[in-house]
Specification:
Blueprint: E1 3-7, H1 8-18, E2 23-26, H2 33-42, E3 47-49, H3 53-65, E4 70-75, H4 78-81, H5 83-92, E5 98-104, H6 118-124, E6 128-129, H7 134-151, E7 155-160, H8 161-164, E8 167-171, H9 187-190, H10 194-217, E9 222-224, E10 230-235, H11 238-246, E11 251-254, E12 256-257, H12 261-268, E13 273-277, H13 283-288, E14 295-296, H14 311-317, H15 341-352, E15 356-358, H16 383-392, E16 399-404, H17 405-421, E17 426-432, E18 435-436, E19 442-443, H18 461-468, E20 472-476, H19 481-493, E21 497-503, H20 509-513
Helix pairs in contact: 1-2, 1-7, 3-5, 15-19, 16-17, 17-18
The chain binds thiamine diphosphate.
């Protein structure tokens, strides 16, 4: 068996390839973006950049209904967008193995929050596997397909930036054969109407003991004997930290959820003190506190409740405070590139003098930084237009919403229709640079290339806006500053919903795609 160095994202992708998947769906988002990109580049498996995470989940669910295996990947906040189909998919169940690979981002290196996806798995009552290195990332992903088929449930593979963006050795295995298509009707199980929901929920609840039984079979969670009366409970990635910091102490390794309380009690028996290590929220620590009175972790104040578990709090917790301060890598926060078309747009917007500018998520969010300081708010993807409607409806004049092209297609369109339908007076600026620049220049649906870089039809942003019923749509190159300022002024001054599309490709597009 060949052993190679792989990124965590690539290890997850490889696990899915080895499991014989037939399709991959995703919407880009750090730290999970490269999972689909690896499969697109290194296999013949069809892949799609879906319009958003909800669509990605639904397409994947459709694939699973045909009895074939499917991988759906996204970043943690993407699961908020996909939460509606996700929560009911566990009731209906799946057919072909369905693995949902979610990349969490403790430390919010590239995200709008630090939410912990393990709660989503618990919420939907499905199993969640949490690898701790590249080897387990690959192996767990592959096994997750088996578990998914055995239970008839989607299985989540939760990992974090630190694992996904680090290299570690991975053993390559055989690639399984793709399954045959087998699509059959079964209304009681496939149609979530009130009449079916209670029996479906009953079935889901009955699967819970089987989940524990199956997870036990693979030893995802196990006690590693050690010396002393202090024990460590280490979840996922933190298992490697525990081995490095205190390998002589007894360790309970947790890499799958839900956890078996019998195993937990067995571990706690006879221990005077327990240390709980977990990236994210104190999910396991809360449970451990029900069974033991001396628990150290995030809730005791020994470890921070926010951010990633870095060396400093961990060394302090294990009494290894170094006198010498740890060498720090200089922070390199993102900024708008020199020559970025978004810069020119913002200069024009500032000249047009809006009263309030609602922002969205993408490279253009960086327009909030000095010297431009051109944005007043940023909440989540697709929120700019809704926020602008709310503000304008309270009588505030000259309100502008700024949204990227990918973000507009992801979740901006319903809010634009809302603005028209509810007679808002706002200016909507769509910053069209042809790609999802922030996450690595993935093509958007109006660029004309698929995730596999095959030619495809282009959707037309202006026509979409017109079809939504807006009062005017103007498309301008942001390098033509006077024209841009005048269009923005008109949009701010006139009643109704006005759209200005600032159109100039990202400076990296020509280099990456050899087409503009
Ligand atoms: C729900 C959700 N999904 C994915 C992301 C990751 N993400 C951040 S910005 C962005 C899109 C940016 O593309 P676009 O709107 O075209 O703006 P650009 O970066 O090209 O300026 C994505 C996908 C996110 N923050 N939230």
């Amino acid at each position: 068996m060949e052993r190679v160095l792989m990124l965590g994202t690539d290890a997850i992708a490889r696990g899915a390839i080895e499991a014989g998947i037939s399709y991959v769906t995703s919407y880009p988002g750090t730290p999970a973006t490269q999972i689909l990109e690896y499969i697109a580049k290194n296999s013949n498996i069809p892949c799609e950049w879906s319009l958003n995470e909800k669509v990605a989940f639904e397409v994947a669910y459709g694939v699973s209904l045909t009895g074939r295996r499917v991988l759906c990947s996204m970043k943690h906040v993407g699961l908020n967008v996909a939460a509606d189909p996700f929560m009911t998919s566990s009731y209906l169940g799946v057919r072909g193995g369905f693995v949902l690979a979610v990349g969490d981002d403790p430390g919010a290196y590239s995200s709008q929050n630090e939410q912990d996806s393990r709660f989503y798995a618990y919420f939907a009552k499905i199993p969640c596997l949490e690898p701790y290195d590249g080897e387990t990332a690959k192996f767990y992903t592959k096994i997750a397909f088996e578990i998914s088929e055995e239970l008839g449930l989607p299985v989540m593979v939760r990992s974090q930036t630190r694992l996904l963006h680090c290299y570690s050795p991975v053993t390559l295995g055989e690639i399984e054969k793709e399954k045959e298509v087998n699509l059959t009707k079964d209304p009681q199980h496939l149609i979530a109407i009130p009449k079916h929901v209670i029996p479906l929920h009953k079935e889901l609840n009955a699967k819970q003991s089987k989940i524990l039984e199956i997870l036990k079979r693979y030893n995802f969670n196990e006690i590693i004997a050690g010396k002393g009366k202090t024990g460590i409970i280490a979840c996922g990635l933190t298992f490697t930290y525990a081995l490095e910091l205190a390998k002589d102490l007894p360790i309970l390794k947790i890499t799958a959820y839900p956890i078996d309380e019998i195993l937990l009690k067995e571990f706690l028996n006879g221990l005077e003190e327990v240390i709980v290590l977990e990236e994210g929220y104190p999910l396991i620590e809360k449970l451990v506190r029900c069974f033991h009175s001396r628990v150290r972790g995030k809730l005791s104040g020994d470890l921070p409740l926010e951010g990633e578990l870095g060396p400093e709090p961990l060394l302090r917790l294990f009494g290894r405070d170094t006198k010498k301060p740890l060498e720090k890598v200089p922070p390199r926060p993102p900024f708008l590139c020199p020559g970025c078309p978004h810069r020119e747009f913002y200069k024009a917007l500032l000249e047009a003098k809006p009263n309030f500018v609602t922002g969205d998520i993408g490279c253009y969010t960086l327009g909030c930084l000095p010297p431009l300081s051109a944005l007043d708010t940023c909440l989540c993807m697709g929120a700019s237009i809704g926020k602008a409607i709310g503000i304008a409806k309270q009588g505030v004049k000259r309100v502008a919403a700024v949204i990227g092209d990918s973000t507009f297609l992801h979740s901006g369109i319903p809010a634009l229709i809302d603005a028209v339908y509810n007679k808002a007076d706002i200016l909507v600026c769509i910053l069209d640079n042809s790609v999802v620049a922030m996450t690595g220049h993935q093509p958007t649906p109006h660029f004309g290339l698929t995730a596999k870089l095959e030619e495809t039809k282009k959707v037309n942003l202006s026509e979409i806006c017109k079809a939504c019923g807006v009062d005017s749509v103007t498309k301008i190159d942001p390098y033509k500053k006077d024209e841009m300022v005048s269009a923005l002024r008109k949009g701010l001054e006139n009643p109704g919903v006005h759209v200005v599309i600032s159109r100039r490709p990202c400076i990296f597009v020509a280099k990456k795609f050899k087409k503009v």
